[in-house]
Design a protein that fits this description.
alpha+beta, two-stranded antiparallel sheet, 6 strands, 15% strand
């Protein structure tokens, strides 16, 4: 599911602007971009994200300003590299002569946080955690709202699958009877041309064979059971992976039914059924 959360804080010497974005994904993948170059803080951010989300690609970005040397300092090596490259570009393209230090400071790596471990990282984490938590709360609420709408849509698809199964189940005996009538008429026509008689035993064996080949009783029962399990999973939290597996099994049963359908009406019904199951398979990937 997609989600977006934004929060900011400005308190004395510290200000931060945090944005959390999430998109669909089978597994949880977190990308942290704080611009601090403090691995310990990045790890704590990723751990906090994992408390909110189980699946999806989540990106956490922030713009942090902390006045004073105790908070951050320029990375002179990277800063100087930016300045030299910008000067080359200025001369090559005849740009304005001014190269502003404050703009260079906003480029990745130009600011380096002091105290990469110990009290330095802990101090940074204590200041950024509240605003990060607020942004994550907002992103999680947005995902939850989308999840409720998605669950309702999936429930409607399951209801349509149930109705189609009822029609398919009702049609199955009629399909066998239609086959018996077609086979009888065709056989009688051919036998009449040859001047012979119809063998009742032959017709009976062919009809029984057809009924066995096209019997979808087990597939219908299993698909009904899958739908029940799927609906139970929709009412539970954090069941996205389980629902994804159930949807795959539903797809398997629908394919088997399609391979056994020999009646034109049955074929149309099964095609509609597969369409609903495919929609379920696609949309369930968005659930957490």
């Amino acid at each position: 599911m997609t989600g977006f959360g934004h929060a900011s804080v400005s308190n004395g010497d510290f200000s931060a602007d945090v944005v959390v974005r999430s998109v669909n994904g089978k597994h949880l993948k977190t990308k942290v971009q704080l611009g601090l170059h403090m691995p310990e803080v990045d790890e704590r951010v990723a751990a906090l994200v994992a408390r909110y989300f189980r699946r999806g690609s989540v990106e956490v970005s922030a713009r942090i300003d902390w006045a004073g040397a105790a908070g951050a300092a320029f990375n002179e090596r990277i800063f100087g590299s930016y300045a030299r490259e910008l000067e080359k570009l200025r001369r090559r393209f005849g740009l304005a002569p001014e190269i502003r230090a404050d703009l260079i400071a906003q480029l990745p790596g130009a600011m380096a946080a002091e105290g990469l471990s110990g009290r330095g990282a802990g101090r940074v984490w204590r200041r950024i955690r509240p605003v990060l938590t607020e942004a994550l709360d907002r992103a999680a609420r947005m995902r939850a709202s989308e999840g409720r709408h998605l669950a309702a849509a999936l429930g409607r698809h399951c209801a349509r699958v149930r109705r189609l199964l009822d029609r398919i189940e009702a049609r199955a005996p009629l399909a066998a009877e239609q086959y018996r009538l077609r086979l009888t008429r065709r056989t009688e026509s051919l036998v009449a041309e040859a001047g012979a008689e119809v063998d009742p035993g032959f017709l009976a064996r062919e009809i029984v064979a057809f009924a066995e080949r096209s019997d979808i009783t087990e597939e219908i029962c299993r698909l009904r059971a899958h739908i029940e399990h799927f609906m139970e999973g929709l009412r539970a939290e954090g069941s996205g992976r389980r629902l994804e597996f159930i949807a795959q099994e539903m797809h398997r049963e629908a394919n088997t039914m399609a391979s056994k359908a020999n009646d034109t009406v049955m074929v149309r019904l099964v095609i509609d059924l597969r369409g609903e199951v495919d929609k379920i398979r696609e949309q369930v990937l968005n659930l957490e």
